[in-house]
Amino acid sequence: MWRGPVVQARKNAVNAVKWKVFSMHAKLIAIAAQKWWNPEDNPTLATLIHKAKKEWVPNDTIDRAIKKWTGEDKDAAQISEIIYEWYAPGWVALLISTLTDNKNRTVSNVRSIFSKYGWNMWESGAVSWMFHSKWVIFIDPSLHSYESIEELVFETDAQDIMLEAGYVKIITAPEDLQSVEDFFVNKNISIFESKLDYIPDNEMEIDDFDKALKFTKMIEAFEEDEDVNIVSSNEIISEELQKQVDEFIEKNTFRT
């Protein structure tokens, strides 16, 4: 009994996630449209529209995002990408990409999260030099074996393939995403998800429970922020340690 508050809380959480997904797609499209509003002559814009539609972003949301830069939406606030950089103890690097129409709000929120978990932002360029913007395609290996996908990937313009965190990950340049996705779709390979990410050149291990817990909670806080688009880091946490951290968080999370 008294399921109402719990059910409503879940609905609110789902709606919040959906709102952020739609909002981020709109911001990315608005930024891409600055270079040129017509997707036929702007491959990046075409790719972003394609991705937005796959995640059920309404056409009018997409149209409004493009109109921010055609002059038709005269009240539109300018969207900017701001990247924040950070080193944790042990030289674990973290890069936070935000999309915002209010820089003061965004920097205040980001600084607050860094401060809450005991670390400070570094100057621009301290971390970003080791990260590269790529699209990552995720395929479920329980549906399609790694070996079968690996054989096919060499027929595409993809740059790398790996098995990580329970998924086959295919790395591709932004301009090649749609052709690589279309290739696998035509081969009846189901794509679980694809997203823009920043891929690091090297990795650093976190092997202490308290540090792993604090790092995981901080990442969650950034991912929940309305202006944060991409959270990228070069940490490695073993499956066993991450499981311990996740179980601790689950056990100590208050539920209505």
What does this entry look like structurally?
The chain has 256 residues and is α+β, with helices and mostly antiparallel strands. It has 3 domains: 64 residues, Arc Repressor Mutant, subunit A, CATH 1.10.10; 98 residues, YebC, transcriptional regulation domain (Alpha-Beta Plaits, 2-Layer Sandwich); 66 residues, YebC, transcriptional regulation domain (Alpha-Beta Plaits, 2-Layer Sandwich). The protein has 8 helices and 9 strands. A 4-stranded antiparallel sheet has the order 4-5-3-6, covered by helices on one side. A 3-stranded antiparallel sheet has the order 1-2-8. Helix 1 packs antiparallel against helix 2, helix 1 packs across helix 3 and helix 7 packs across helix 8. It is globular, with a radius of gyration of 20 Å. The relative contact order is 0.13.
Strand content: 15-25%
Overall shape: it is globular
What percent of residues adopt helix (DSSP H or I)? 40-55%
Low-confidence stretches: 1-16
Task: Say what the CATH topology of the largest domain is.
Answer: Alpha-Beta Plaits
CATH architecture of the largest domain: 2-Layer Sandwich
Distance between the termini: 12 Å
As for the number of domains, it is 3
* CATH superfamily descriptor of the largest domain: YebC, transcriptional regulation domain
Mean pLDDT: 80
Question: What does the largest sheet look like?
Answer: 4 strands, antiparallel
The radius of gyration computed from the alpha-carbon positions, rounded to a whole number of angstroms, is 20 Å
Question: Using DSSP, what is the number of strands?
Answer: 9
Strand order of the largest sheet: 4-5-3-6
Order of helices and strands: HHHEEHEHEEHEEHEEH
**Structural class per helix/strand content?**
alpha+beta
CATH class of the largest domain: Alpha Beta
